[in-house]
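We include the pair:
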Amino acid sequence: MKDVGQRTAEATALKHAVPYIRIFKGKTFVLKAGGGALERESGKYYVKTKSHKDGKEEAIDGTLKLPSDVYNGIVITAVKNLPKGAGATIHLVAFTPKPLLVELELQAMGEDKMMVGQLVKVASHYVLKPHPGPWLELFAKLLGRMPSDYHVWIITEGAPSFARFEGPLDPTGPVWRIELISPRWPE
């Protein structure tokens, strides 16, 4: 991995209490998020940040009302479990650094063919559209800060399996393509 002056690392554990650590380093990041926790049952959260500008640390805590369909860390699994051609709406908790509940719309967009060895396989294409809420979405669009859509391809034949992902790994970052090495996609 080439170091371009900024790094991001993220770790999530899915347990009764979900520890959440996100570290930002580099010139482009204003804050360093040093860690935190989100309790699934109670919705209580704790986030610790440190400003790169003046070194001031801040601890943020509170309670977030969580719906039953929060899928942090397992969005691809949620897509793999959708019936073929179906869509759904789920939720994520985004740490900005204060936790924000974001609605994520999973839309089926059709199918694409690919080659696995000499076999033709079909992958269902899904578009994941984040909706942070009407007011935040309006301001994000006006300021050009609305997160990009994410694209996921799932092979639905037999046991559903991941084939490809296109989208930013960080809401303000570049679009990445992550795919398996074996399938060959038409150009």
